[in-house]
Amino acid sequence: MNTGRPVSSGGYFRMASTSKTLVATVVLQLEAEGRLSLDDTVDHWLPGVVRGNGNDGSRVTIHHLLQHTSGIRDALPGYTTPEEYYQQRHIIYEPKQLVDLAMAHEPEDFVPGKGWAYSNTGYVLLDMIIQKATGHPAHQEIKNRILGPLGLDRTRWTGASPTLPRPHAQAYQLFGPGSRVDVTDQIPVDYANLSWVTTTRDENRFFRALLDGRLLPARQLAKMKQTVAVSAEVQELWPDGRYGLGLVERPLGCGGTYWSHEGGDGGYITLNGVTDDGRRSAVVSMSEARGDTKEHILEQEDAASALIDHALCAGGPNTR
User: How far is CA 88 from CA 25, 67, 96, 142, 189, in A?
Assistant: First the structure.
């Protein structure tokens, strides 16, 4: 519905892949507690789940999953036309179903740990490992370990609900010329991992707390910040960007680097950034995805990245 009203500064939006940093934080907390090791294989926790077509869970470690170096294919369903959106928007996939979709494909053309390819499937597996290690769903561990202690009461797991809490902006997706569709009403395809909503205030608070050491011991935070080069395709979105463990390192125009993890799903596109000391942060939340052409996607990405860079380089108060 086009009301013409300004977007609320405290409005909710879908967190999408930014939630990978929440998942990675919990995994590293569990490592610090001695409840798992980053060198544990997937087979150790989920025997027989990663199998078939050349996939081998005995060769893939938790560290590989966190850093997208596992080689497991990113095989989540998605929509590319308005018709597909309306057909798929309320379909519910269980985590094992999503993993099985990936197992129908051969892995990427590199040995685990010797290449990089973004894999949502890897984080589906991490959610499953968290549940196996703790006895609780990953979203419950995130709530107990991160949201509660930080008072992030506007970051919520919505499960299989297709709606967001109010207030929120409507979300739109461009599918081509003259094809702008309201895609607000949908269940995220990986509802167990991606059904997080938040606000700019909460997202800023989370990233500042993570980088200033309130969520992880120094040893685990240092591991999170050990980065590798990303693929050439992703380099177009993150020029000179590198990937750690659920955390992206990007250069600042004024020198040095900042940390982030953007998210995009169902019309909501969010970029963020926090300085290495956790003192300054910025979040840019958009409710329209220019997903119709590669040129438009890069233009939107570059514009939001420039806003983050400007805010962090300004050296002023925290921005949201």
Answer: 31, 29, 18, 28, 9
- Which residues are tagged catalytic? 17
- Name the residue type at position 198: T
Within 10 angstroms of residue 178's Cβ, the number of other Cβ atoms is: 6
For residue range 199-257, list pLDDT tens digits in order: 999 999 999 999 999 999 999 999 999 999 999 999 999 999 999 999 999 999 999 99
pTM: 0.96
In contact, 243 and 260? CB cutoff 8 Å: no
Q: How far apart are CA 200 and CA 272, in angstroms?
A: 9
User: Which sign does the torsion angle of CA 226, 112, 140, 188 carry?
Assistant: positive
Query: Minimal CA–CA distance to 130: which of 46, 208, 15?
Result: 46
- Helices 120-134 and 19-32 sit at what angle, rounded to 10 degrees? 40
In DSSP notation, 66-79 reads HHT-S---------
